[in-house]
Amino acid sequence: MKSYIKLVNFEINRFIKIYVSLLVITLLSQFIGVIVTSSSFMNRAHEVMFEQNLSESGYLHKFGGIDFTDISSTLWFIGPIALCIVALIFYSFMIWYRDWFGKNTFAYRLLMLPTARISLYFSKASAILLFTFGLLAFQILILPLENTLFESLILENFLKTRMDVSVILQSNGILGIVIPPYFSDFLISYGIGMMFVFVLFTSILFERSFRLKGIVLGILYFIAAVLLFLSPLFAMANETVPDLYPEEIFALFLVLGILITGASIAIGNWLISKRVLV
Amino acid sequence: MKQYISSILLVCLSIIIIGAYYGIMIVNANDFPEYSIKTLEGHESEMKDVSLSGFVEKEGMNTSVKITSNETLYLSNQSSLQRMTVYNDPRIEKLKKEHRSFMRGKNNIYSFYQDADFIAYAETVYKPSSLDHSYKYVFNIGLLDLASDKDISFELGVPGEIFNSISVLDVQLIQSKLKVVTKNYMYTNTGMDEAEVHVYTFDLGNQKLLNDEVIITPQQVKMGYDVINSMEQNPSQPQKSIIFIKRPEIVNQSEGSANTTNKAAIFEYVYDKNHLKTIELPESLTDRIVTSQNYVNGDKLYVINHDAKGLHLTTFTITNQTITNDQTFPIKSVGTETFPIVIKNDRVYVLATNDFEENNSSNLPPQLFIGEMKTGKTMYKGEVIPKKVDQKFNTKSLVLYSLEIN
User: Fold this and answer.
1) B205 with B96, same domain?
2) What distance in Å separates residue A137's CA from the closest CA in chain B?
3) Of B6, B90, B334, B368, which has the most beta carbons under 10 Å away?
């Protein structure tokens, strides 16, 4: 347990510089987005009102106001979120390969540690999970600040609706998926996410154990896991399979999810303790 | 310790912020107003079986709500699993509990027939044929023998041309033949909707279609023929006939020519006689049914109009073709809207709401009215109001659209 915590801490510290940069990029881009979008909206509104000789209410009647969805759909806002997602997916690979491709094969020293090697596997997965939750928490934290800034930049009358954080999250497609409105949905989304992190890690270990042959094995393992997890959907499209009730479909997904996660950890454990090459 | 600082910060902040966010969301989800039905007139015991359905708008989101005499039930308070099934018709849910295997994939309550011995099911589905993969409508038919708990099911192509859409109006088991009444919409070049009503007769034993009869032609549909909605609590119960109405004015208003033969009329299609019979209506009703809300329940036809005095409700008994009841209930209607109405056990239940009125500015709370059919007496009158008046919600955020009597 102690070595697991030490390893998690070690993984977090190794990535912390890039991670903090991601947070700073998100913060800057979203705040600049709020300022640029709302001030350009107000400037354009005043210009149009001047050119077409419209009153404030006349403008609003003709063109309408603005609300936070106009901000949260811009690239300023969505861009850094997408960047963070891509960065974490990329780092899910790098968290393994940097040990092998770094200077003087660091993996060798890690694998020689006097502790169960599966701790290494779990510590890397935990680090990815913590990085993900940290990003979510950061977005939840800065969203109300951005909203307050936005409302202070827009003249009262031009504000279509006042929105609070939960409404903003639900009104935006990407945010609604990243931070679902119900806690049960949150558990389901990130449960599926973690399952695929384990599947990916096991695929990577296949490659690290059997090299060229391992690439094929790893890819096949990943595809098989995805297909197996989605198999209830294929079953539903198939006419010969009787129609399933929603609660049965949910139970099927749950069982398959636990099965795939369990299998990935078991195979991962076997690969990292018996087969992995340095 | 110092080397752990970023990990500790990351873990603690994530847990605190995400935890707080979902904590607030859960508190917010429970922060919907409680409503009560405040009695204005009559005795509360009259409305103890009434439940009103609608939605409450909050911060731009609609949440389904069910209001009964003693509770306000919100959809968002329920778990994900409950949310998956809660949109289902309670009558379907009941059948599903009793006949789980037979009920798989069956959802439309109007597609069921149920008597003491059998449950029959007929629905049309649009699917690719196994031969040439072209899409066509097929009948999906099932029969459950309640005594032996054995069921059969089969598929049969819908004969004739390719229809645009088909909706099942009624399913009946008559002398061990399955009768399926459907309204079939057809493709036209003119862009106008063209439809006809069919009665399909199936031999369940041999899994064969015996007969396909058009009982209302496209020409008749254009003249204003349509089926009258049923007020059955249970549309799957056995019926010997299905009732149609002809409402010429509604369709042909623009064409002007006051055709005297083109009067409103009621028709009955009796299943075991295979023909459409005109029902003689008293003069007073022929004019009214053109604009009224009409419902059928068993052999009763209810004709409902709003006039200056209130809600005028006439009961016409189809079997002996006489008016058996005629009452006016003191329910005022501001516009032309039709109120949800249920008639059950000598009571008429009306949900009077102006929520669907265009330019609705009056902001009156929805009212529940219960009258006695026989005497026309008002048995109960109440309005739906929030339990706490000083909340940020007013009645405007509540929209009710249906009522059920349990």
Assistant:
1) yes
2) 5
3) B368
Indicate whether B138 and B198 sit together in one domain: yes
Quote the CA–CA distance of B240 and B268 in Å, as a whole number. Answer: 10
Per-residue pLDDT of chain A (278 residues; tens, 9 = 90+): 788 999 999 999 999 999 999 999 999 999 999 999 999 999 999 999 999 988 888 888 888 889 999 999 999 999 999 999 999 999 999 999 999 887 767 888 888 888 889 999 999 999 999 999 999 999 999 999 999 999 999 988 888 888 888 888 878 888 888 898 888 889 999 999 999 999 999 999 999 999 999 999 999 999 999 999 999 999 888 777 788 888 888 899 999 999 999 999 999 999 999 998 87
- Dump pLDDT digits (tens) for B275-313: 888 988 888 888 888 888 889 888 889 999 888 888 899
Task: Please check whether residues B198 and B127 belong to one and the same domain.
Answer: yes
Question: For residue B395, what pLDDT is reported?
Answer: 47
B68 and B143 within one domain: no
Helices B5-29 and A2-51 pack at an angle, to 10 degrees, of 60
* Cα of A259 to nearest chain B Cα, Å: 21
Sheet holding B265-270, edge to edge: B225-227, B241-246, B265-270, B275-279
- How far apart are alpha carbons B372 and B354 in whole angstroms? 23
**What is the number of structural domains in chain B?**
2
Chain A positions touching B105 (Cβ under 8 A) are 242-243
Of the candidates B87, B82, B67, the one whose C-alpha atom is nearest the C-alpha of residue B404 is: B67
Quick check: B368 and B382 in contact, CB under 8 A? yes
Those residues with Cβ within 8 angstroms of residue A119's Cβ, 6 or more apart along the chain or in another chain? A3, A4, A7
What's residue B405's pLDDT? 86
pLDDT at residue B55, as a whole number: 86
> Using beta carbons and an 8 Å cutoff, which residues of A are at the interface with B?
8-9, 12-13, 16, 130-131, 133-134, 136-138, 140-141, 161, 163-167, 170-171, 179, 181-186, 188, 242-247, 250
Least Cα distance to A210 among A274, A277, A272, A117 occurs for A277
CB B243 within 8 A of CB B266: yes
Burial string for A28-51 (b: 16+ CB within 10 Å, else e) reads ebbbebbbebbeebeeebeeebee
Nearest to A246 among B15, B22, B84 (CB): B84
Least Cα separation, residue A15 to chain B (angstroms): 11
Select from A145, A155, A147 the least CA-distant residue to A43.
A155
**Domain that includes residue B381, residue range:** 33-78+330-406
B199 falls within a domain? yes
CA–CA dist B164, B195 (Å, integer):
9
With CA atoms as reference, the chain B residue closest to A246 would be B84
Kindly determine whether residue A186 and residue B22, on different chains, have CB atoms separated by under 8 Å: yes
Residue B63 included in any domain:
yes
* Complex ipTM: 0.91
